[in-house]
UniProtKB/TrEMBL annotation, chain A:
Matches recorded under SUPFAM superfamilies: LuxS/MPP-like metallohydrolase (SSF63411)
Limits of the Peptidase M16 C-terminal domain: 182-352
Annotated protein name in UniProt: Insulinase family protein
Xref: InterPro entries: Metalloenz_LuxS/M16, MPP/UQCRC_Complex, Peptidase_M16_C
UniProtKB/TrEMBL annotation, chain B:
Alphabetic keyword roster: Hydrolase, Metalloprotease, Protease, Zinc
Peptidase M16 N-terminal domain location: 22-158
Protein name: Insulinase family protein
Annotated transmembrane regions: none
Gene3D superfamilies: Metalloenzyme, LuxS/M16 peptidase-like
rRNA processing listed as a keyword: no
GO molecular function, one term: metal ion binding
Record organism: Tessaracoccus rhinocerotis
Biological processes per GO annotation: proteolysis
Organism domain of life: Bacteria
Family: Belongs to the peptidase M16 family.
Domain Peptidase M16 C-terminal, first and last residues per copy: 180-353
Lineage: Bacteria, Bacillati, Actinomycetota, Actinomycetes, Propionibacteriales
Length: 442, 424
């Protein structure tokens, strides 16, 4: 039987939301998705972690994670029980320039769910015990991350890229010292100041045929206005460096290589996304084929270009057994030099993947709501996705090569490695790098 | 699809002359087709001294066949905008692609080609042994608590039991494996009669079956391989204490439970959710909020097809509280639960959560195809996915109380995984 030929159908399009402005000024995006009976709701607040008092870092995270422990009207966990009874689950995340709180729930129960959800937003009880418990959980999470080589490498990378004087260079959820200083009043004050409708967006996605959307959004739109959102800014990166976070017992070296780049609105963005897939994003990427399939150095190499709010970041990461790690890093840097330009085949494969995988990555209401909330957090419109798909068609292999060479310079990347420093430090030196071993405060 | 307990996914089954079983779940709204192939072989079926081989073999299946070069399977599916991967557990090895409709035939051809023939070179074999060793390091050896799962399994299965080792295997056995083992393993297990193929997504039943016949129909009919009889699991509870360089001490209580297909497993699943899911759960309220002996509680089940499964409860003690005190509090709370059972509301909450998760899982063709195959292997019936929510709706508080009393008795095995003093 001969190899079948592939017939690819029309390009998939990201759905277009109905846009609304709620009575309290919040923007709402409503995605009508027939057949999606588990609906998703996401609230996006434009809150920067840089607004946290330096000595209380982690307060934004605690204010988020403790928010559904109880409300004034339904204290002591009752609010969560009521949400659970409706089949709703609540999740959230605090990022450098946004905080998100969301819920997945059966679409036909949305009116009840958003009523409870609005209660969570607007009147959390934040008891002293709940705050203390969530502070304790964050300290435990911090300690767990400090013991995890992947997290240590990522943390060391951010610290080397931005420096510890920048909020982005320090742990997002604070440190045991700053967490220990957080009291109930601090959490309440953070909530009052930053959990406000100003600048916030709500995204609703699902099969909404059985509900009245006005009724579903009404409780969110009734969230009282109070104050204006804090301004957001971005820290400039430091000069590139090579750092080692010492984990003496580690049997692998976990490596992060990367740099800041232009972001979504740069004319090269589509070319960079194609380049990222070809060099490190795909299974058949250059780095994965070399380091995994040919040399057996690693279980796999991951990375590519990720958009941040106003710029972007290139990243390649992997774990290697310690004895080959320095050679692996040297080969990554060599690969980034792009001695051989990208071929038309590499670029067309990357294009086919990025366009073809989009419907798979956006199959559920949660997927759509998550993608829309990432864009909303960056002040981008959901139409960006389809515009980006169109731009992916444009660059030639020469364009992709030129864009990558311009924005990722192997002599200008930051490298962070977690692992056994006594072996890694001389080995990295032997391949021509000049690593600094970080002190234990990482 | 409907909401509520009545699910009605269309499922059509067909068996090829060579024994390959096919199930098609057509979904005209789906953006793609999921191809999900389960071979009924896993770490349970490994020979002594060859632990980890079923999983290593999974890697080798991507290293080339008669008409497909090494790495071309992955690259070819990615290049049409598809996703592709494979996983190995104790009882099955799962290969899956999710592809645009126009690439369905390519995906079937790739799977049929490697079911029919393998072409592994010594160099590819050697590289994949190293890749799997790096996977083991990355997932286990270089992680805090990396040996926890292994210690837990040892409470319930002797090291010589087919379930007594992890699918990732041992470094020694991976080093000892040779190219000669590859063909023998392939010949023993990889054949149409030992596989189930599920297609879920935007393809009609007739067309799907015609394509499967076209690409798999000429493969030889070979008898269905037999699996070894499962020796009994260990029955006496064990208590193990280990001291490791980890951030926190943990207490794991675990119990032998029935095989995956047993009717009690659903009630046990719901019982574990009522006991530990979220901050409203029974044990969180009791151990974390009221008694202040723990900071968090969780649960998990390790399901096995051919012998006993394992249910676990995990607690992280509060600062200064010994794991023994947490274990005692846990036993007391469980004993109380076996008397009162859950409230109607606790059961309703757990049911509503299960239902949402179940529907959410079924919302993607990739996960849906996998759940259909899981139903098929576990219960011998792919249509069980349509019945799960009705079975859930039929559960009573008494069912939940009974299974906890019957299976999560007063003397669990206990793993006291202790943080060394110096580590914090």
């Amino acid at each position: 039987m001969n190899r079948p030929t592939v017939h690819l159908a029309q390009r998939w399009h990201f759905p277009t939301p109905e846009l609304r402005t709620l009575p309290n000024g919040m923007r709402a995006q409503v995605f009508h998705l027939p057949g999606q009976h588990v609906a998703a709701l996401e609230l996006v607040l434009p809150t920067p972690l840089a607004a946290e008092p330096r000595g209380l870092e982690g307060v934004a995270t605690v204010a988020l994670t403790a928010i559904d422990e109880g409300t004034v009207a339904h204290p002591d966990g009752r609010i969560s029980e009521l949400l659970e009874l409706q089949g709703a689950s609540v999740h959230g995340v605090t990022l450098q320039t946004s905080t998100r709180l969301g819920t997945d729930a059966p679409a036909h129960r949305l009116p009840e769910v958003t009523t409870l959800f609005a209660e969570v937003l607007s009147s959390p009880a934040y008891t002293t015990d709940d705050v203390a418990h969530h502070v304790g959980l964050q300290v435990a999470t911090h300690d767990s991350l400090e013991a995890s080589p992947g997290a240590v490498a990522k943390r060391a990378f951010r610290s080397a890229l931005f420096g510890r004087d920048a909020r982005e260079g320090r742990p997002a959820a604070g440190t045991p010292e700053t967490l220990a200083a957080i009291r109930r009043d601090d959490v309440v004050a953070w909530h009052q100041r930053h959990w406000i409708p100003d600048g916030a967006t709500v995204i609703l996605a699902g099969d909404l045929s059985s509900v009245d959307v006005d009724e579903v959004l009404a409780p969110i739109g009734a969230w009282p206005v109070g104050g204006t959102a804090a301004p957001r800014s971005a820290a400039p990166p430091l000069a590139p460096s090579v750092v080692i976070a010492d984990m003496p017992d580690a049997v692998q070296a976990t490596v992060q290589v990367g740099c800041l780049t232009p972001g979504r609105r740069h004319p090269h963005w589509a070319a960079l996304k194609l380049a990222g897939h070809a060099i490190t994003g795909a299974f058949a990427s250059r780095l994965n084929l070399e380091l995994r399939e040919r040399l057996g150095y690693t279980y796999g190499v991951q990375g590519g270009f990720g958009a941040r709010r106003s710029d972007g970041q290139f990243n390649a990461g992997s774990s290697f057994r310690t004895e080959v790690a320095a050679d692996a890093v040297a080969r990554i840097l060599q690969g980034l030099e792009l001695h051989a330009p990208f071929t038309e085949l590499e670029v067309s494969d990357a294009r086919a993947f990025l366009l073809g995988v989009a419907p798979l990555a956006n199959e559920t209401a949660s997927d759509i709501a998550r993608q829309a909330s990432v864009l909303a957090a960056a002040d981008e419109d959901p139409t960006f996705v389809n515009e980006h798909f169109e731009r992916l068609e444009e660059p030639s292999a020469a364009d992709v090569t030129a864009a990558f060479r311009e924005h990722v310079r192997p002599d200008r990347v930051t490298i962070a490695v977690s692992g056994n420093a006594s072996e890694l430090e001389p080995a990295l030196r032997a391949v021509g790098l000049d690593p600094v071993v970080l002190d234990s405060a990482g | 699809m409907t909401t509520g307990p009545e699910l009605a996914y269309e499922l059509a089954t067909h068996t090829l002359g060579n024994g390959l079983q096919v199930c098609v779940q057509p979904d005209p709204q789906a953006p793609a087709v999921a191809v999900n192939l389960w071979y009924e072989v896993g770490s349970y079926d490994e020979q002594p001294g060859r632990s980890g081989f079923a999983h290593l073999f999974e890697h080798l299946m991507f290293q080339g066949s008669r008409d497909v070069a090494s790495g071309e399977h992955m690259a070819g599916v990615e290049a049409v905008g598809g996703s592709v991967n494979a996983t190995t557990s104790t009882d099955r090895t799962n290969y899956f692609e999710t592809v645009p409709v126009g690439a369905l035939e390519l995906s079937l051809w790739l799977e049929a080609n490697r079911m029919d023939s393998l072409a592994i070179t010594q160099a590819n074999f050697d590289a994949q042994v190293e890749v799997v060793k790096e996977e083991k390091r990355q997932r286990y050896d270089n992680q805090p608590y990396g040996d926890l799962f292994e210690l837990l399994v040892a409470h319930h299965f002797d090291a010589t039991h087919p379930y007594g080792h992890l699918p990732i295997g041992s470094m020694q056995d991976l080093d000892d494996a040779g190219l000669g083992d590859v063909q023998a393993f392939f010949d023993a297990w990889y054949r149409p009669s030992n596989a189930r193929l599920v297609l879920s997504g935007n393809v009609a039943v007739d067309q799907a079956i015609e394509l499967v016949e076209r690409h798999f129909g000429s493969l030889p009919a070979l008898p269905r391989p037999q699996h070894a009889e499962a020796p009994p699991a260990l029955s006496a509870p064990m208590v193990t204490r280990v001291s490791r360089n980890v951030p926190h001490s943990l207490l794991y209580a675990s119990w032998p439970t029935p095989p995956a297909a047993h009717v009690d497993q659903l009630a046990l699943d719901i019982a574990l959710a009522i006991l530990t899911d979220g901050h409203t759960s029974r044990l969180h309220r009791a151990l974390v909020r009221s008694r202040n002996v723990a900071e968090e509680v969780h649960s998990a089940s390790l399901l096995h097809l051919r012998a006993g499964s394992v249910a676990t409860l995990l607690a992280r003690p509060a600062d200064g509280v010994p794991t023994d005190a947490v274990a005692e509090a846990l036993r007391e709370e469980l004993a109380a639960f076996t008397v009162t059972g859950p409230t109607e509301e606790e059961l309703a909450r757990a049911r509503a959560q299960f239902e949402r998760d179940w529907l959410l899982d079924l919302a993607t063709v990739e996960a849906r195809a996998d759940m259909i195959n899981d139903s098929w292997l576990t219960h011998g019936d792919p249509t069980r996915v349509n019945l799960r929510l009705a079975e859930l709706a039929a559960l009573t508080p008494e069912d939940v109380r009974r299974v906890v009393g019957q299976h999560l008795g007063p003397a669990p095995s206990e793993l006291h995984y202790l943080a060394k003093e110096s580590s914090r």
